[in-house]
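Lab notebook, bench 4. The sequencing result for the construct came back, and we need a structural model before the next group meeting so we can plan mutations. Quick request posted to the team channel:

Model the 3D structure of this chain.
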Amino acid sequence: MPGSLVSCESCSLNMTLGVVLTPETMVAGKLAASASSTSAPQGEAPAQSKRTREYHKLKTQPFQTEFTNREASAATLAEWLDCSADEILVALTQLDDGSAYELWRIPKGKGKFREISSPSDELKAVQRRVLDRLLYRVPCSNAAHGFMPGRSIVTGAKVHLSTATEVFNVDLKDAFPSVKAERVKHLFVRHVKVPFLHLGRFTGYEQANDLINMLTRLVTWQGQLPQGAPTSGCLLNIACTTLDKRIFRLLDEAPGQYRYTRFADDLTISSGHQMPRVLRHALMKVITNSGFETNVEKTKYLRISAGQTLEVTGLHLEKGKVRIPREKLDRYRAKIHNASQIPLGELTDEVRLDTQSTAAFVAMVYERLPNKILKPYLEFCEAHGLRKPWQNKPTMPFFMYPSANNADE
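Done. Here's the predicted structure in token form:
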């Protein structure tokens, strides 16, 4: 159809159109006219909206533990988290009086311990809301396999399974404590400012700053990410976005083909060819420049050509399958067998959950329990009157995990 001259009196536009005029095109014309009428004169910067000006203020403010209006901000935040303001205020009070966390240590080998900060039930409930309503909506790097729904150490290992002949493993030293409260606040300003300032009731600068500070206060402890809070893993993933981006860029520019995954603080780069020393040094420099330190003791460069077994997040890549190391599988078998020997009625909840979790982990890796674990686990279930797993129903705990591959060993 030849173009026709159309006059639109409502927006004072004369346009020659090459398409049929429709209500949609008229709406687009009105929007264009509106945009042109509000643009700044030539040579002048466009005027910023009130919300934009308020956001730029937020970016320059340091993290604070005091709030301009504690009750009003808690009420507004409660609208976003789908909880009550009282729940938030109780959690904040516990943080103020020091009763929010219980600290305990778990051994991690060589006489060292990992400190775990376990939040109170009230604080944990609010943190779960922050995770579900806000953090899970923030995009993370495709390299992340830890603390990601539907992903696990198995999905991370399978990325390298088909092509890897060499693996470079790097561990971030004290990754969670490395993410300070100021950095967490910056992440919230960067990713949550749009909902707070544009997708809800306009709060104004002071309350928006209160909301960001309140969120930061709820998910940090002693000025850093607590290892044990449900929000910490996701926040670590978000904090590692720049690190992941830089590593992907470095690998893309390097000769050859590489694959990269990260499970929390455990980084793995693999290739089907030799990995130059200069590239490995460049990777370590990228990590340092991104605000993290490396644990030299846990840095490994493994090669099939050197007779070494490739390992990714504690799992072995062998014969085209993801496997648990044999010595670790033997320890799991002994643990389950010992639990089956406990007299009926004397099994504690802690031992029961630990035994079931062990079986669940093995089944996650192998899709089903291998025979050397299945037999003692059936004895354990029979000895204590628990459900047996042979029906392979998805309601069984360990069948809820992502599958890897079958195993007959």
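The first helix runs from residue 23 to 38.
Will bring this to the meeting.
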